[in-house]
Write a structure and sequence with these properties.
The protein has one domain. The protein has a two-stranded antiparallel sheet with strand order 1-2. The chain is built from three helices and two strands; from the N terminus they run αααββ. With 81 residues, it is mostly helical.
Length: 81
Amino acid sequence: MIDMARQSREELGRAKMLKEIASGKLTPLKAIKLHCLDCVCYDRNEVTKCGNVDCPLHEFRFGRNPRHKGRVDRKGKEVGE
C-alpha cells in the first residue's frame, strides 16, 4: 500500500511535469530534471542520492550540463558544477 503523502507527492509532481510540457518552455535540461524526479517518485533527496551511474542522464540530473564546467554566464556566475 502506498502511503498518502507519497501518492500526493507523485500526483503533484506529475501535474507539474505536464504543466511544464504544455507550456512549451521546456528546455532539454528541465526535461531531464523532471525525468529524474519522476524516476524517484518526486523525492528531491533521492535525486541527489541517485546511484544509477549507468543512466545516460545521471550527470545532468541537477538541471545542469556538466560539460559547461568552468564557463560563466553573462552575469559572471559559473555555469555547470
